[in-house]
Amino acid sequence: MQRVLFLHGAIGASDQLSDIANSLSDTYDVHRFDFAGHGGKPFPEEPLSIKLFADEVLNFLNEKGIDKVSIFGYSMGGYVAMMLAKHHPERVEKIVTLATKFHWDEPTAAKETKMLQADKIEEKVPAFAKALAERHAPNDWKELFIRTIDMLNAMGQDNPLKLEDYSNIETPSLILLGDRDKMITLEETLNVYKTLPNAQMGMLPNTHHPIEQANIPHLLFHIRQFFG
Length: 228
Fold this sequence. Notes:
Shape: globular
CATH superfamily: Alpha/Beta hydrolase fold, catalytic domain
Helix content: 40-55%
Structural class: alpha/beta
């Protein structure tokens, strides 16, 4: 049975992908994973980074005795999957990404970090703040925000994966974007799709950026079709 690993987005956790993973468990050997500082995982001593997360995934595969895996990566999880495929292509069978921001520069980082103001979230959307507290307990979700802001600013100064890097990633990849996603541009998605040597691209109808607002039946269809 083909192994599939599900990787969540920034400030998210693996529990957000549990329904999708469970829906595919009849066909695949599914695994979920929380990045450091997310979903209750302890914070690392070093700063959060895409490289750190990719190394964590590699260690997870080694601990589980998994030689090769297909990956579904939502948002930042898709970026981590691409980083792993670049540096350890022998460990990645196929990749499906959804709503992944590939283009990073200083203005992009400034725009994204502006949405990570914990005090404003606590004041204006207390239900979301409560959900974050529960999702990341016993960690302080506000500390996760601070560390994520530092990571995104670092990415803005030096994008870990340049556009030309994708030309060397030969892992079969399906790049998905929601038609109503206001965070990810069609341009950056197309640029990566066109640069990858072995890629397909798809658009999910009636799909906003949050995974909770994705068109799940269409997403499951694409995953099954691509992973086979």
